Amino acid sequence: MLTFLAVVVGMIVLGISEVRYKTRPCDEIIRQIDASDNTIINRKTGIDRKQRWFCVAMLVAFIGLDIWAYTIVGTYLKLPPMWQSKEYVRAENDLSTEGTLEFWEIYVDTLVAEEEAPSLLERWQGNDSIVVKVGNYPKKVFGLNREGDHVWKSEESLGNQVILYKLKKTSPEGPAISAAVLDGKPMVQKVFVNHPRKYPNTEAEPMIVSLTPEASRLWSTFTTETIGRKAALVMDGAVIQEWMIQCDIDYGFFFIMREWSSKEELEAFCERLIRQ
Question: What is the reported pTM?
Answer without folding.
Answer: 0.64
